[in-house]
Every structure is written in structure tokens, then in C-alpha cells.
Amino acid sequence: SVGDSSDNASSDGITVDVVSPTINSLTSNITKNKWDSTSDNANPYFGWTGDDNVSRIRAFSYVLDQSDSTIPDDVPEGDLNNLSNELNTIYSGLADGIYYFHVKAQDNALNWGATDEYIIKVDTTSPTVPQLYNPIQTTGTGNLTYNWTNSTDISEVNLYQLQVDDDEDFSSPGKNVTTSSTQLTVILSAG
Is there a contact between 20 and 32 (Cβ–Cβ < 8 Å)? Predict the structure, then answer.
């Protein structure tokens, strides 16, 4: 009938597909958009699936970069005759930084879908070592105040650990404390 709209039309066995495919699952071994030092985040794995109810998925195009606005090119990746081999990829040796994995699907009617993205934050480098301003102190009151330089890291520094001992080899620390500050007053117990 006149005025009806549809996502596809069929006549004499010919189907017209005007619906773009979608990415319905995008996963990684890296926690999404979070600094994650517990995993092998310099070697991320990405896996995905797509969906197109009319003409089915034909191919995918994807890219990993450091821009949040990238759209993968319109060139299918890999072997078009073996789509099951094109549902994941692994990257290795990434430098520290924020990365965006972008993927889009193409259906058999050659429609490209919208881009989906997965953000990872790679941090494989230890923070800088803070420097104590006054590492050796004596006290008559039992209170010691320590100050140190900020430690820096791409993923920020959340905690400092300070050990206080009366032995130079730190064989029996009298105090072992953590703080988020660059200053700490330690109260030593008598004895």
C-alpha cells in the first residue's frame, strides 16, 4: 500500500535490505575504560559479534588507535569466506596510554553499520619513586613527620607506603603505614 515503509522489501525472490547491521557484543580481556594493572593490558584481545536479520553479516572492519572519533574504513578485514575467523583480534606490545578499539559490521547487501568502540587504558610502567625530604630523623617526643615528593604515573598514584625502622636494613619495621598524602606523622610507641 502507498505510504507504508519497511526495512526490507521482497518481490519475485529479490530482497532489498536497507537496514544497517549492528555490533551486538564487544568484549575484551581488559576491563573497559579502567586502569587495570592485574591483567596483561599491553596485549589486549577483542572479540565481537554482529547482527543483521535481513541479509546477514558479510564482514567487519576494525582499528585500534588513540582517537575516540575514528570510524573504521569500508574495507572488510580478513577472509570473507571464513567469517568465524574474523570475530576477534589480538594486539601486542602496546605502549602506555588510552586506546580505542573501533569495529563496524557490513551485511550482504553491502550496508555498513554504526561503529562500536571499546576503551582500554594501558599502564605497564611503575610509578616514579618518591623522594623523602628527611629520611633520617630522631625524636624525643615519639613523633616523626615525613614529607616526600609526589610520585607520578599515567594512571595516577593512589597510595604511598611508608616503613619506619630503627635498623638500617629494615629487618623489623616498627611502623608500616599507607597514606594518600605526601606527608605523614608517625607516632612511635614507647619501648
Answer: no
Q: Is the pLDDT of residue 45 over 70?
A: yes
The three grid cell numbers given for residue 144, joined into one nine-digit string: 616523626
Residues in Cβ contact with 112 at an 8 Å cutoff, skipping those fewer than 6 apart: 20, 21, 61, 74, 104, 105, 106
Kindly state the average pLDDT of the residues 159-171: 82
Which residue in the block uniquely carries the three cell numbers 582499528?
63
Maximum Cα interatomic distance, the chain, rounded to a whole number of Å: 98
- How far is 157 from 146, CA to CA, in rounded Å? 18
Q: Is the pTM for the entire model greater than 0.70? A: yes
Distance CA 100, CA 33 (A): 9
Would you put residue 81 in left (φ > 0), alpha (ψ -120 to 50) or beta?
alpha
Question: What pLDDT, on the 0 to 100 scale, is given for residue 9?
Answer: 55
Question: Which grid cell is 107?
Answer: 551485511
DSSP string over 39-59: S-TTS-EEEEEEE-TTT-EEE
Sort 61 into a burial class: Cβ within 10 Å, 0-12 / 13-18 / 19+.
buried
HSE at residue 174, side-chain half, CA atoms within 13 A, is 14
pLDDT in tens, 132-157: 998 887 777 878 888 999 988 888 88
Q: Please choose, from the candidates 38, 83, 42, the residue with its C-alpha nearest in 3D space to the C-alpha of residue 64.
A: 42
